[in-house]
Design goal:
Radius of gyration: 20 Å
Helix content: 40-55%
Distance between the termini: 33 Å
Number of helices: 14
Structural class: alpha/beta
Number of strands: 13
Length: 327
């Protein structure tokens, strides 16, 4: 991100900390619906813990620093804080959050010790049992719909409502949407390009379905989920489904989008025979996003991470789309 654009974004972010206009409607009590029912937040929360991915992004973008948030090993480096979150925390100042153990299940005792008055797991996969345990500590807001599928716009709006900053959240969504549109417009070849998102996982191709937040975001950029993926997708709400290597050519699209933690992993995947036999590979129309930070910035994306990672992502997609259009 150019320095001037990034500086402008942080200034705008800090500006969100300004109070609402005097005529704004009372924000509390707030009732939020989610996969496990409804959560009532009686008054403005002061001690907030986040769990899952991207929840702290929206919260911090709205000018509020959580008292606890997960250690993000994917894209967070050794200190567990992703670079766009680190930049935003420095812009806001104050104490840094406690980083929660991220070993799979929520660390209930660690969270309880923080004595939060609100727990945000709007993008997460918490189970009903975990939700009940978290709710015994503080009002908890879980995901809506299926686990790990909440779009960044809904995450931002839900967290905005939970902390009494709905208007600011709506403005963040509008500003970020405009940023996405501006970035996509600089690459007109993306519009209408069909794609399939795939990775190598557990002895098969993992193909991302329409419910996946990565897929939703690619359609925001003007790309189209390939009809072959839609036809093959199970109707069970899963965000991905397996396709055997032998059936890789059933994934028909203009481009293939894939993600690799480093170049060696990308090269190993792209070097496999079932990939090299695909027409997308022969056309050099595979968009491989490499690096945990780059991947985490767009899968799932957030109002913070998009400003950090979108330009690189779009460049990778546009190169593949340009090759796909070559006769």
């Amino acid at each position: 991100m150019p320095f001037r654009r990034r500086s402008f974004f942080w200034l705008a972010l800090v500006g969100l900390m300004l109070p609402l206009p005097a005529l704004a409607q009372p924000a509390f009590p707030a009732t939020l619906s989610h996969a496990y029912g409804q959560t009532v937040i009686e008054k403005a929360p002061l001690r907030i813990v986040t769990w899952g991915w991207g929840n702290e992004d929206a919260l911090i973008a709205l000018g509020v620093v959580p008292i606890g948030m997960p250690f993000q090993s994917y894209g967070g480096g050794e200190d567990g804080v992703q670079p766009w979150v680190d930049e935003a925390l420095k812009a806001l100042g104050g104490d840094r959050p406690l980083l929660l153990d991220m070993a799979g299940e929520p660390p209930i005792e660690q969270i309880a010790a923080l004595q939060p008055d609100l727990i945000l797991a709007v993008y997460s996969g918490i189970t009903a049992e975990q939700y009940a345990l978290l709710s015994s500590i503080a009002p908890t807001v879980a995901y809506s719909g299926d686990a790990w599928t909440t779009p960044w716009q809904d995450i931002t709006r839900t967290i905005g409502q939970a902390i009494g900053k709905s208007a600011e959240a709506e403005q963040l969504v509008a500003d970020t949407t405009a940023f996405i549109a501006e970035t996509a417009a600089a690459h007109p070849g993306l519009a209408g390009t069909s794609f399939a998102g795939v990775n190598d996982y557990d002895g098969a191709l993992a193909v991302y379905a329409a419910a996946d937040s990565r897929v939703k975001f690619l359609t925001d950029l003007g790309l189209v989920l390939a009809p072959s993926v839609v036809a093959l997708s199970p109707q069970d709400g899963s965000f991905y489904f397996p396709v055997s290597y032998e059936l890789a050519d059933s994934i028909q699209s203009d481009i293939i989008v894939t993600y690799a933690e480093d170049q060696a992993i990308a090269d190993a995947f792209l070097g496999k025979p079932f990939i090299q036999n695909l027409p997308q590979y022969r056309a050099d129309a595979i968009a491989a996003l490499v690096g945990t930070e780059q991947i985490a910035a767009v899968s799932p994306p957030s109002v913070l991470s998009l400003h950090w990672g979108l330009p690189t992502y779009v460049d990778v997609l546009a190169r593949a789309a340009g090759n796909a259009a070559t006769p």
